[in-house]
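Q: Peptidase S1 domain-containing protein, please. Structure only.
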Amino acid sequence: MSLLRKTTALGVMTVLVAAASPAVAGAITTHGGAPIIITAANDVQGMCTLNSVAVQGDTYYGITAGHCLAPEEFGAAPVEITTANGELLADADDLSDSGYVLDGSANFLDPNAGLNDFAWFRLDESVTPDATGISSQADTGIALLDPLLTGERLETGDPVPVTQDLVGSLVCKDGAKTGRTCGPVLSVNTESQEIFAAIPAIAGDSGSPLYTIGDDGKAHIVGVLSNGSPVLFNVFDGTSSHLASVGA
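A: Structure for Peptidase S1 domain-containing protein:
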């Protein structure tokens, strides 16, 4: 089961940027744009994308879309999160220190409906994440296409607030399935912090970081992918309104 909420609009993303954490050779690591496999207590599994890594004190948290951790999506509560290779990112104890928000139905036909789709989970102590990097490896199943969508590592900067200045600008997302795809911001809702953009995404990309490239050359995250379809409008849930949830 690959997770991407089904609505008449496309995706939503939320992002947190944290202090740098150099990866240790041989250690389990993860980063924004990496695939995560969620397993529920009933053995149902789903794929999402890690949006980013947040830091609270000495503890690292993985950020993704809220529906990726919602028990109603699986029929049972999530009990484990791993990398695509099966390496542990969070066990049941780690997931006891997690949370999610999931409400609203904003889409391009009803942009004022509001939307919250954001989740966080404690990364296991065995994980040494790249907390300031975004990269992706496309896995569309189309051999000739995947190399073109591979996203090389980008250094992240501070989050960018959702403002009207984003409208018309080029933004990109890095997802576990479609890799790095870009497109224009069509509109924003500054009150409820949604971003509407035309960016390809498919199931498994949920949670992907949405970002702009600043004058400093860094990726500045503005949202988290929630739902959508391959080529239509995408809805992204803005980051800043959720940062306090994990104390970052």
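A: Brief note, in case it's useful. The chain has one domain: 35-246.
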